[in-house]
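Q: Given only this backbone (271 positions), what sequence would you predict?
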């Protein structure tokens, strides 16, 4: 009798091998913590490690050489300066994209994330880069980008940025969605990043604004927070825009996320 398949296979078991899930299992099995408590502790440990030890490459990240986003078109690749970036090859939300849209849905979900991650760090991926990273053809990537553009989603590849100009970074997009009232889970699903990454972007935004409100110069903010120059500018524009609109979510951010900047002498929450 032929096997009947009721739905697409799940990819969720692949996430049992990450160091976060291993730590979560230890907290539950050896220390008796409930699952929700264990998850909260893992998030807290990640934030603590990021604050005091910087942003290290995670289990699912690679370092990839990209073209500097400031480099104009017209030069050969051998003549252009390269910029190494961290790219996240897989996040838990990829499994949901696969379950909802199959291989095509997951590929497009990852395509958006990879291109935006590189762009946020000052690099640009080409369609050929994305084809290599996603193990598909350049023609398929070209078709995906065209259909995403028709759906209102602009993917910041090297060709697109030079054609359309500035495209908002994924960090500022995630923060803007929150300031407009969208939840973390919804933002993560729509932007193709993990919920932990969305919360990290929120925290980077609060750190940036706190330093800005205390009179730090842009280059000092970049040095202290590690946020790229382009993203710092977008964060400050977002802050001024939503401050003028008297957005209630601004104060919510500053009460929920403890800014991780050791240099700040006293607690501060812009009004």
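A: Predicted residues:
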């Amino acid at each position: 009798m032929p096997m009947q398949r009721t739905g697409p296979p799940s990819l969720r078991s692949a996430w049992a091998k990450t160091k976060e899930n291993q730590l979560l299992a230890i907290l539950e099995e050896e220390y008796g913590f409930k699952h929700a408590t264990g998850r909260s502790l893992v998030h807290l440990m990640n934030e603590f490690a990021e604050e005091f030890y910087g942003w290290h490459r995670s289990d699912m990240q690679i370092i990839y050489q990209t073209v500097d986003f400031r480099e104009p078109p017209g030069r050969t690749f051998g003549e252009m300066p390269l910029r190494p970036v961290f790219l996240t090859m897989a996040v838990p939300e990829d499994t949901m994209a696969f379950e909802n849209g199959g291989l095509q849905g997951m590929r497009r979900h990852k395509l958006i994330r990879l291109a935006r991650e590189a762009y946020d760090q000052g690099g640009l991926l080409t369609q050929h880069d994305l084809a290599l990273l996603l193990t598909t053809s350049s023609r398929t990537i070209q078709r995906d980008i065209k259909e995403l553009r028709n759906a209102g989603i602009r993917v910041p590849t090297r060709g697109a940025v030079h054609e359309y100009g500035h495209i908002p970074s994924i960090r500022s997009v995630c923060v803007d969605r929150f300031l407009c009232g969208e939840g973390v889970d919804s933002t993560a699903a729509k932007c193709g990043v993990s919920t932990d990454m969305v919360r990290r972007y929120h925290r980077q935004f609060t750190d940036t604004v706190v330093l800005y409100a205390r009179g730090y110069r842009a280059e000092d903010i970049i040095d202290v927070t590690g946020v790229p120059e382009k993203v710092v500018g977008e964060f400050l524009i977002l802050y001024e825009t939503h401050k003028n609109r008297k957005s209630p979510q601004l104060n919510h951010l500053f009460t929920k996320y403890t800014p991780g900047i050791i240099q700040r002498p006293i607690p501060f929450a812009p009004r």
